[in-house]
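Wed. Picked up where I left off yesterday with M18 family aminopeptidase. The coffee machine is broken again, so keeping this brief.
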Amino acid sequence: MPYDPTLERLLTFLQSSPTPWHATANMARRLEQTGFRRLDETQPWALSPGERIVVTRNDSSLIALQLPEGPLDALRLIGAHTDSPGLRLKPNAAIVGRDWLQLGVEVYGGALLAPWFDRDLGLAGRVHVRRADGRLQGMLLNIERPVAIVPSLAIHLDREANNGRAINAQTQMAPVLLQGGEGKDFDRLLKRWLYEQHDLEDIDILDFELCLYDTQPPRRVGVDGELISSARLDNLLSCFIGMEALLDSDGTQGAVLVANDHEEVGSASTCGAQGPFLADVLRRVHAQFDNAHEGDGEESWFRLLQASRLISCDNAHALHPNFPDKHDAAHGPAINGGPVVKINANQRYATTSATAALFRDLCREVGVSSQTFVSRADMACGSTIGPITAAELGIPTLDVGVAQWGMHSIRETAGSRDPDYLIRVLTAFINRRELS
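Structure written out below (tokens, as returned):
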């Protein structure tokens, strides 16, 4: 299959981002390498027209802004989320019994549990420690080699396993970590891994947020490489696409990339879409531009929001060849068929006919086909950061995404041509002068 530098960057990003904290660090690093200036929310900001800035919160959410040379009269926003469903360790994680040290886990978000069995699992997240001199420090940890597994029960011991047996996350999903281990061994292992990755000795581990993840690397799949198979495509694929579009843009228009954490659990957090992160950053930016151009405060703030547009990017359900009856017959998006406009009459998606029209016109402009997803009328519909952000700020919004299979599985599948399609459309969106 031909070499594609964009896809190679995507696969590298997916592989190196096993948690929201790693994804945010990787995005911030790349943005800084390409000229974005990192800002600290606890410090005063001095902004200049035309510059590019990046801000993070909780180390797991990110906002990147491209500031216009002239007045800040409209913003082109792209939204995504950094978190994915999975298994996270409980605070007192060590479980000892029957000659095995196991890990107590909690299910994060709406994860498909069955695919987690018999996978080679690594461990990653962030750990906070007290150093020998009394300083508190947080750091990322990523154990990339397989250190745990959730073994299946043999069919001989459960003849009903293939007949829709329920899975109990409390009693049947504890990964095995160490044979013959004791409870204190997990703390010892964490200290050893921190020493190996950060050269830290004589530390006390105070707390952690750690996730298990599949160590199988992302791959192109199919005779002609038509597919991408990876963990966390929902929604690191959209984070990557939004970042690529921002970096590919011509830099003339005001633009924002917001990647929130906690979408999979409702977005109600300091750094989630229902929290104040985006509004806080935009208000600080607006205040400086408003003062510089002798604006009229709140009046120009509300005009800015209504003149702006948000494209919420979160993957869509592709028509599954084995389960075609799970789709409305007229709304089954195809893999590699172009970006999908997501519509729901009950506002689970924020798309309106006006915002959809803008997106379809952008697709026409760059020669990319668009598709439409609407859930079956007899099935519940998921949601995104789109309706939440629209409700918080009042910005006209639409929901779009790349079509995929296996959403919320430990390993998901999307088309290898679709990322480029959506990057092209979003780049045109950022460059577009008129949004109405």
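Quick read: The chain has a mean pLDDT of 95.
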